[in-house]
């Protein structure tokens, strides 16, 4: 974490999707929890409405998530395609833990009512703050030596997740972030020319 605090852009450059992960962690569970708590406390949100909710699954709870996801997908994926799906699920399950990202729809709706002039924007702002939480946690975990990737099996698994961990019905699942000690490196990343993506006016 010290490296991340000292050099933000180094952490941003090193953030990659790592799919080869193991059931090991170079840092303690307490440290992982601290990273999440710091992120949730300090990441900005529109009108400071703090709509993002995060669940950390470790050990058997992490395994259970990917068992549930596998079961749900088996019911909707053809037998011919399921072998590759099973391989993906095994890869995520092989990780050390998973971070689940949610948005509390009751809070979003509350601000829509409080500020009717901005009503149509709050759902978009909600997604934006969730994305910021995802990036900060991703960078922080990678800076501590963990491999991380981001998945989106919502809404297929939403009801099962809410029921299994007895979460509020107003929490909408946005993304799943499995992580663990890297067992494989990331592939080469290609970049479109920055000059085509940025305009500067003076």
Key terms for this structure?
single chain, 202 residues, alpha+beta, 5-stranded antiparallel β-sheet, 8 helices, 15% strand, globular
Secondary structure topology:
Blueprint: H1 2-6, H2 8-14, E1 21-22, H3 29-42, E2 52-58, H4 60-74, H5 79-93, E3 97-104, H6 105-114, H7 122-143, E4 147-148, H8 158-164, E5 171-182
Antiparallel strand pairs: 1-5, 2-3, 3-5, 4-5
Describe this structure in words.
The chain has 202 residues and is α+β, with helices and mostly antiparallel strands. Helices cover 47% and strands 15% of the residues. It contains eight helices and five strands. It has helices at residues 2-6, 8-14, 29-42, 60-74, 79-93, 105-114, 122-143, 158-164, and strands at 21-22, 52-58, 97-104, 147-148, 171-182. Strands 1, 2, 3, 4 and 5 form a five-stranded antiparallel β-sheet that branches. α4 runs antiparallel to α5 (79-93).
């Amino acid at each position: 974490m010290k490296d991340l605090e000292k050099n933000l852009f180094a952490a941003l450059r090193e953030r990659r999707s790592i799919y080869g992960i193991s059931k090991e962690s170079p840092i303690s569970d307490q440290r992982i929890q601290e990273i999440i708590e710091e992120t949730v406390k300090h990441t900005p949100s529109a009108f400071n409405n703090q709509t993002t909710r995060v669940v950390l699954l470790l050990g058997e709870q992490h395994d259970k998530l990917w068992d549930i996801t596998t079961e749900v997908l088996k019911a909707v994926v053809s037998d011919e395609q399921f072998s590759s799906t099973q391989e993906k699920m095994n890869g995520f399950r092989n990780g050390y833990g998973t971070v689940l990202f949610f948005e509390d729809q009751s809070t979003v709706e509350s601000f829509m009512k409080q500020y009717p002039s901005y009503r149509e924007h709050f759902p978009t702002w909600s997604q934006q703050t969730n994305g910021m939480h995802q990036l900060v946690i991703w960078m922080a975990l990678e800076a501590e030596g963990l491999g991380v990737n981001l998945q989106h099996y919502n809404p297929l698994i939403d009801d099962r997740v809410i029921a299994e961990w007895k979460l509020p019905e107003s929490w909408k699942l946005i993304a799943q972030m499995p992580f663990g000690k890297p067992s494989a490196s990331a592939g080469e990343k290609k970049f479109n020319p920055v000059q085509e993506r940025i305009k500067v006016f003076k």
